[in-house]
């Protein structure tokens, strides 16, 4: 940041303001997403934060960097959104006679995040105290674990362990004390360690695109063919199927296969279109419309891989995220 650009921005030059803030827009949006769990809400919150920064640029003291100042605004906007809780549905539509789940958890609000938005982030290295690499801190398992934390703990964990801000910086961002930050961080780490154990943290997209393409391709073909036995054969022994925000979760080939067969009895021959979400392979799912040659947007599947197998299938029964992924609302209903 140059003093000249800052002076121009404070004088009302919008181009100068964009020069100051645009390098941080994508990383701020990802930050908001980690806290609120919603792609669309994160986009809205960044817009609100940048508008607040534009209107309050005279309050920027220059004692901290412009990046830290923007994180302060975006973090507090995100926390306000969680407290207001106005953007989240108050009730879930019941599932249609699902089989008995392996376990029930509390519902969480979570959406997938397009890889196209992650790839657009400048290579901003985290601070020296960060505990998570960017890929790990973007994976669904980690973001899902965050949604189980109270808002303040969520923000502290992300600011400290993902972005690497020092305790004093976090205290300033949240307008609290160093001692409060340490207490919040200790409790947040304990919860995340329980929700995302170390063994699960090693599960990530395969570094070799060849094996990843093979297992992902086999999965897609099996789903489109209604071949549940092949899907089950691709799973790890302890694989999970989850469906945020629904609390129903299924573990193991037998339970997952049973669930897919029950669902498959109602939804024959889904069409899948490949994409990527949260650094993981994903598919837009399309349901064929009877007596037509099209299939309509139905939901989105994200796969978590472990070696040459699938460790988790996460299904989002919400086609509202398709525009963020560049996925069409309909596709041709081509058999096979």
Please explain how this structure is put together.
- This protein has 336 residues and is an alpha+beta fold.
- It has 16 helices and 8 strands.
- A hairpin with a 2-residue loop joins strand 4 (271-277) and strand 5.
- Helix 3 crosses helix 4 (39-55).
- The chain is globular.
Protein traits:
336 residues; Butyryl-CoA Dehydrogenase, subunit A, domain 3; Nuclear Transport Factor 2, Chain: A; 16 helices; 49% helix; globular
- Give the helix level as a range of percent: 40-55%
Number of helices: 16
Write down the CATH topology of the largest domain: Butyryl-CoA Dehydrogenase, subunit A, domain 3
CATH architecture of the largest domain: Up-down Bundle
Largest beta-sheet details = 8 strands, mixed
- Write the element-wise H/E pattern from the N-terminal end onward: HHHHHEHHHHHHHHHEEHEEEEHE
CATH superfamily of the largest domain: PhyR, sigma-like (SL) domain
Strand count: 8
Q: SS-based structural class? A: alpha+beta
Radius of gyration: 21 Å
CATH class of the largest domain: Mainly Alpha
Tell me the strand percentage band.
Answer: 15-25%
Model regions low in confidence, pLDDT < 50 over at least 5 residues: none
Please state the overall shape, judged from the principal axes of the Cα atoms.
Answer: globular
State the end-to-end distance: 55 Å
Whole-number count of domains = 2
Q: Tell me, rounded to a whole number, the average pLDDT.
A: 89
């Amino acid at each position: 940041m140059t003093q000249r650009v800052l002076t121009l921005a404070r004088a009302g030059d919008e181009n100068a303001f964009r020069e100051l803030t645009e390098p941080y827009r994508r990383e701020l949006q990802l930050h908001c997403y980690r806290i609120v769990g919603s792609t669309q809400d994160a986009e809205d919150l960044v817009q609100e934060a940048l508008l607040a920064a534009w209107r309050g640029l005279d309050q920027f003291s220059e004692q901290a960097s412009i990046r830290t100042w923007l994180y302060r605004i975006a973090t507090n906007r995100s926390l306000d959104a969680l407290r207001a809780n106005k953007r989240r549905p108050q009730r879930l539509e019941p599932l249609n006679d699902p089989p008995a789940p392996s376990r029930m958890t509390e519902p969480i609000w979570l959406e997938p995040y397009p890889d196209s938005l992650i790839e657009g982030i400048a290579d901003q290295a985290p601070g020296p105290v960060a505990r998570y690499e960017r890929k790990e801190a973007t994976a669904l398992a980690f973001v899902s674990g965050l949604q189980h934390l109270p808002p303040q703990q969520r923000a502290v964990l992300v600011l400290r362990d993902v972005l690497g801000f020092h305790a004093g910086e976090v205290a300033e961002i949240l307008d609290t004390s160093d001692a409060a930050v340490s207490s919040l961080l200790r409790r947040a780490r304990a919860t995340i360690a329980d929700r995302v154990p170390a063994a699960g943290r090693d599960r990530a997209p395969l570094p070799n695109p060849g094996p990843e393409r093979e297992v992902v391709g086999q999965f897609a073909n099996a789903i489109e063919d209604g071949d549940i036995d092949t899907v089950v054969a691709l799973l790890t022994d302890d694989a999970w199927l989850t469906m945020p925000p629904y609390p129903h979760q299924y573990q193991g080939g037998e339970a997952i296969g049973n669930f897919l067969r029950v669902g498959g009895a109602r939804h024959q021959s889904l069409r899948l279109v490949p994409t990527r979400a949260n650094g993981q392979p994903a598919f837009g799912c399309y349901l064929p419309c009877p007596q037509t040659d099209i299939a309509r947007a139905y939901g989105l599947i994200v796969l978590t891989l472990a070696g040459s197998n699938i460790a988790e299938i996460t299904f989002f029964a919400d086609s509202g995220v398709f525009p963020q992924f560049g996925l069409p609302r309909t596709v041709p209903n081509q058999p096979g």
